[in-house]
Design goal:
This is Lipoprotein. By secondary structure, this protein is of the alpha+beta class. The longest helix is centred in the middle third of the chain and has 15 residues. The protein has a 6-stranded antiparallel β-sheet. Strands 1, 2, 3, 4 and 5 form a 5-stranded mixed β-sheet that branches. The two termini are about 30 Å apart. It is about 15% helix and about 35% strand. It has one domain. The protein is built from 3 helices and 11 strands. The relative contact order is 0.17.
């Protein structure tokens, strides 16, 4: 099953047998459907999403070595942070209105080239980020939404898609999500995302394909979301850069 998000259901053996390597190799070079069916996706993947943060709202001379995404439930505060970020960080952009969801406030802006940047601020009532991207640790933030398996899974997928977590290069544009699953016990929700990434080789060398499982936990008592571990599942030789395999 491509996307399994049913509480209490967990595979016993996550290590692929060698015959699966051919499937990983095929998927590595496909360019469409990089997320499994049912995985959280943004409505407009052609635009860019930018979450305002402790760096973006400051003029360059005043910036500190700390990058934490901001959150509020005050719409005027959110707009103020976005305007500061546009002024200090984004060059010339023209506002394109505003909107909001249960997760965020959003203020799109058009660049001189016509590209849309969707400036966002997390809503405190949904998620409070604590991760410092300059000094990352395992704690990502505090979730304050509905406490059930589908809702927790959606939170993690939403953060994954929008690059709100620091995962050492695995959570980057173009990396494929192969599958995801979740489980729950008396104290904790646990989610696993299996990703596929490529390191492209120089001329005369093979690409290297990596398949990894990423484990996340969320405390029922506190709402604290943590990135627990990364487990390498497979390392596969990819295309030869010079022709052939």
């Amino acid at each position: 099953m491509a996307c399994l998000l049913i509480a209490g259901c967990k595979k016993k053996d996550l290590i692929p047998v060698p015959k699966e390597h051919n499937e990983f190799l095929r998927l590595a070079y496909e360019t469409d459907h990089i997320f499994p069916e049912g995985f959280y996706q943004e409505a407009d993947p052609t635009s860019s999403t930018y979450y305002v943060n402790t760096v973006s709202i400051k003029p360059q001379p005043e910036r500190k070595h700390e990058w934490i995404e901001l959150h509020t439930d005050d719409e005027r505060q959110a707009l103020t942070w976005v305007e500061l970020s546009r002024e200090n960080s984004s060059g010339q952009t023209v506002p394109q209105g505003s909107s909001q969801t249960a997760k965020y406030f959003e203020y799109p802006a058009r660049t001189e080239s016509g590209h849309i940047i969707r400036f966002r601020v997390h809503k405190s009532s949904y998620f409070e980020p604590t991760l410092d991207k300059f000094n990352p640790d395992h704690t990502i933030g505090r979730y304050k939404g509905v406490m059930d398996m589908p809702a927790v899974a959606e939170l993690i997928q939403y953060l994954w898609v929008n690059y709100n977590m620091n995962l050492g290069g695995y959570q980057i544009a173009g990396n494929r999500v192969l599958e995801t699953e979740g489980s729950v016990n008396d104290t904790t929700y646990t989610c696993r995302i299996r990703s596929l990434s490529i390191t492209y080789g120089d001329w005369g060398l093979h690409d290297v394909i990596y398949v990894n499982d990423h484990y996340f936990s969320l405390s029922k008592a506190t709402g604290i979301l943590q990135y627990e571990k990364n487990v390498e599942i497979a390392e596969i030789r990819g295309n030869y850069n010079g022709g052939g395999l």
